[in-house]
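Work package 3, deliverable 3.1, input record:
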Amino acid sequence: MKEVIRLENIRRDFRVGDETVHALRGVSFTIAEGEFVTIMGTSGSGKSTLLNTLGCLDTPTAGEYYLDGVAVRTMDKNQRATLRNRKIGFVFQSYNLLAKTTAIENVELPLMYNPSYSASARRERAVEALRAVGLGDRLLHKSNQMSGGQMQRVAIARALVNDPAVILADEATGNLDTRTSFEVLVLFQELHAAGRTIIFVTHNPEIAQYSSRNITLRDGRITSDVVNGNILRAADALAQLPKQEE
Amino acid sequence: MNFTNLFRIAVKALSNNKLRGFLTMLGIIIGVASVITMLAIGQGSKRSIQAEISEMGSNMIMIHPGGDRRGGVQLSADDMESLKLRDLEDIQSKTRYVTYVSPAVNSSRQAVYGANNTPTTVYGVNLDYLDIRRYKVADGDVFTEHDIKTAAKVCLIGQSVVDELFTNGENPVGKVIRFGTIPFRIVGVLESKGYNSMGMDQDDLIIAPYTTVQKRILAITHLQEIVCSALSEAYTDDAIDEITDILRTNHRLKADDDDDFSIRSQQELSSMLTSTTDMMTVLLAAVAGISLLVGGIGIMNIMYVSVTERTREIGLRMSIGAKGRDILAQFLIESILISVTGGLIGVVFGVGAALVVNIAAAFPIYIQPWSVFLSFAVCTLTGVFFGWYPAQKAAMLDPIEAIRYE
């Protein structure tokens, strides 16, 4: 299997006043193409810092990070911006869609920052991505006319549109009710089945059951890294939920 | 990221907040409109004054006997008679920058025709005078060189004199009027020039050969004044230098003697008057410029609010691949769009307001193309200048913090 992410002894220190906070104290792992990895940890465990590092928003103090074979640590801000644009799809807890903007325009956004896409190619890709998340009939709905689940689907479509090496989800179900959470999980599992590499950062242990591998962080170190031998199907869980009253 | 995309993003962001965009624009609209209107009014009055002056002959030079009076020194009678016919002839023949030269002697008396009489002034001149002062003959003809040589009692009269003396509408040409005790045959009537900018009636005069006025009315041989016209307004100073040299030589003045004559030009008068209106224009434009500045500060204020309000949007754009300079460009384009659109509307309003002033208040206006261009350029620069800091602030945001900003 092709290696998408390789972390080698990543350290990240922050200076807060006179003290140095060690957010990451030597984290190493590799993620192969097509894995669905949950990264778990309580708040303060360093998972946000790890996510920022994986997302090329932050650079480690020490250690090496290779994303799709490219060394990230020595890159400058602009190079990392371009790298994010081409290789990473972000899904945030609070969707972060542009207000008063249609689904299609929201999804097009990453491609707006990629000059190699023409306007028509952009639109084509955006429609494709929205169809992939099951919103083919809501292309022109504006963000304020959609439910939370729909908004998160748009956000996922936006993460897919640039055909990224890895999708980074940050508590992507955190703002959703149980049913909608499972619907979104079903979508992630479908993407996983289609061969996408997904990293899902969460503090909800339940989600780990639906991923192929689970990494747990504590105090800036990895405490466990286990392959999930028994992946549950989110679709089954969804089916077992009590029917919503119409 | 290419410019078209940035432009699209900026337009989209502005259209999401139309009312706010419009209110911000209003400051620029009012600023640009007032700059254009004020400049139009200022330039308009300047032009109308210049037009009046050139009507009088803007390249006119007047030479008077006697130097500048200083310290109350009494002038000798000799001094007042320093201009002679020879000076006139030398100016005519030796100068390069002077086109027309005329002597001028004048006398104010009653002019009488039949039962009517009016106080007026006779100007004794030669044929150049009409060209210098831009008088035209409306009816009849000019007197001739022969009339000058023979000191003939012929004259041209101005429209005001015609109105006073020929009340029953008969044709004055060929009639004989009396000026004081001397009878003059009218050979022509001058075209009306109306009042000049100092409120003097330019039609209240009689023009006669200078020899006639010298010999038959004043009984003098010197000239009271010499009037000339320079090649053009631009050559006035050169012409004055030439004339000064000739007169000093003719009057045998030593190097350290003061001039025994004084030269004034219409250009001085015109530059004095236009400098007054120029100052007025500058003052008006300055006041209007301040409102443009206030409009610019309005843009800055709104852009700051907008950047803070859209911190998460900026964070998102950065996480999906926008570079600092993309964000900077986006916000700059937004503020330039506000100021340029406001500027365009302001130009329309400004020109409109100037026309209203012109029509409603009958005030002369002149919309100078450069003033439109200038205020437009200034407001584009305003957009860049006042948009820069907020845009810079946006571009410097840390995406990690911005995306989680509440």
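The longest strand of chain A covers residues 3-16.
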